[in-house]
Each structure stands twice: as structure tokens, then as C-alpha cells.
Amino acid sequence: MTDGPISSNGCEVGPVSGRSDLRAFQRLPRQLRRRQAGWVEPLKLLEGELLKRHRHPFYEGGSGAEAEFFLARDRTGRVIGRIAGIVNRRYDAHVAERDGHNHSPGFFGFFDCVDSPAVASALVGAAKDWLRGQGRREMLGPASPSETYDYGLLVEGLDQPHRFLCVHQPSYYARLLEQAGLEKAKDLLGLTMDMQDPDTLRLLERFFKLSKAADDRLPGKIIIRAPDIKNFDAEVRTICGVFNEALGRLWSHCPISEQEFGHIIWSLRHIAIPDAVLIAENHGEPVGVVLTVPDLNEVIRRLRLRVSWLEPLELLCRAKLWRPKCVRTLVLGVKPGHERSLVVPAIVGRLGRTLTQRGVRYVDAHLVLEDNSSIMTPLLRYGFKPNRRYRIYRSAL
């Protein structure tokens, strides 16, 4: 286990200690990436919350997950890199139930670094040492801190717009991680559908008809509805339950707690599009969910007051006058056994109508496993086209 600083090739790597270090940890991406073409700095409020290990529901006070943050400094004390080692106990329990063993990997995340193989290797080494001390045999990442948040390293598609809640790292990060001894574990794809493309319009028209057919053939049996905000806690339980069951067998899926899911939905409540968060019920049973949010980066990239409470205030003011051109589907899941039913065209048709009426041009779907044909094939058929590739790396410990 890494208890103190590690010196290597002119840099010193040590655990974050105190508020000053934590502020330096949060500031580093801006210092390194502010001149990177296309990059949009995340909202400080959202990112800052995710680093509060004693408060954020992802960690649940250590019972849900545990993390150790590290900083790399040069000889002058300047911060030149950061990384985190992460143990996700909810993922441990999920792997034990799904695969029947207790050999769950540890994770690394929040990786940022100057273009120096020596510094990157020292950072990766610190995360590895900490995870070994936690009894881990394998390391996966980047997961910052899990699949639900910033996940993967963008290795193809840096020319594409940086979307809200998606990673968009410098191109040299892949080289640094590979030189540090990490190798590909899995690739995930990002896809975009242009709703004004003639082929897409024909496909959408087909789904509108299938959605109507579902209503006509099974009146009252398949119901697509928006959540009841007055029963927020109950609706969170419903959406979270369908989400975890729908994605539970996927390689990358990490179950999310109701508390954490509620925290995410609550934080996005001011930007959610009415009727773009949907629950599908079949004979009264919730069997499908879709959660779509506008690409808030369209607004964030224009912010000027990126300090303290002024940032969210300016964001809310600008957002009131904004008509989004792109949305991102955060969650689209159907319970096992319902993938080929009329539930899918019904929920997609309803979503398509909403987005068309609101003048949305692009719909993004992200983090689809490249070998998951059960999801990839329908998306391609619906008119989505791959334009980004995200990589998860691995290393034995």
C-alpha cells in the first residue's frame, strides 16, 4: 500500500492530503487542457461533489466504494499529474453474484498528466500499489469513478464535439498509458443519429407507426409515461430497478444504488426535457426506461463566470433562452425477455416524437460495448452511426 510520496525520475507522487491538495487535484485538468481544441471544462459544482468521498452517495461513507487520490509534483512543487485508485464494493458484490467468484478488479480513474512517460508511469504505479494493498489482482480504467460517470479514454473521435457528461481527453493520454504497461481490455463506442438525415426520417416514421400499432393492438397493456415527480422516491426506485436489471449482464455494468441514482436525477432536474425521461410498463410492470438530457455543453462552452456560485447562476440564465440541437441518451434499457416485444418501438417512437417536436437535430448514444450485438445491431438499424471510440485499459497486479 502507498502510504507516502514516491520519487521517480524528477517527480514525486503522493496521496492527496487536505483541502489544498484536493483543490489542486480538481484544478489540474483545466491547467492541462484549456488549450485543447474542442474540450469543454466540466461544471465545477458537479465535479467537486464527485471528489467528496465523505459525502457523495457513490462512496456511501466507504461501504459503497473507497478511493485514494494521488498527485504528481515536479522538483519545484508544481502539480503535473493526478490519478485515483478505486475499490467499488457494489461492483464486487455484483461480480460475485454474476460470475460466482470474488476476484473483482480494482479501478484507476481521474487520470491527467503532462506529456511525460516517466510521470505517467509513476502515477500508474501509485494506483497499482494502492490496489495491491486492497487485495486486488487486476486494474481496469479509466473509471472516474465508475461507468455511471466519466468512463473510458477517448481514442477515436477527438474531432467530434465534446458532449455533456462524456470524456474528451488529449490524444497523447493513450500513448502514456500504453507506455506505462496498460493494454486494451474493451472498447466502447459512441454513436450519433442525425434526425434530419433522409434515411433516419424514414426510420423514425416507421417507428411512429410501430408505436401506434403497439397502442392499437394492445390498448392499455403497454403504457409509456413520464415519471411522477410528486412521487420522486418511488419513481427513482422504479427507474433504478429497471436500469440495473436491464444492464446487469453487461461486462461493464456497475449496479447503482437508489440513493446514488436519485442524486444524479435530482442534479439534472433543471435541464431535463419533459417527456424525454420515460418509463415503459407492460401489463402494469415497469419493463423499460429511457433517460435523455440535452447536450448542456452547448451552453457551458459559452460561460464566462466560471467561479463559485456565479457559474450555476449564469448557466441557468443562459439555459432559459436555449433550444438544444443535440441530446444524449444516458439510459436506454429494457428488462430481459422484453427486448423483442413492442415495448422497444413504443418507447423509441414516443421519444422520437418528443425530440422531433422540439427541433432536436442530433441524438447521441455513448458507451456501447463494441461486441454487444444485442444493443449495437438495433442502434445501427435505427440510423445511429459510430463516430467515437472509448477504451478501457487493464493491467495485472
Automatic annotation (TrEMBL):
Q: Give the InterPro entries listed for this entry.
A: Acyl_CoA_acyltransferase (IPR016181), BcerS-like (IPR039968)
Coiled-coil spans are none
Q: What name does this protein carry?
A: N-acetyltransferase domain-containing protein
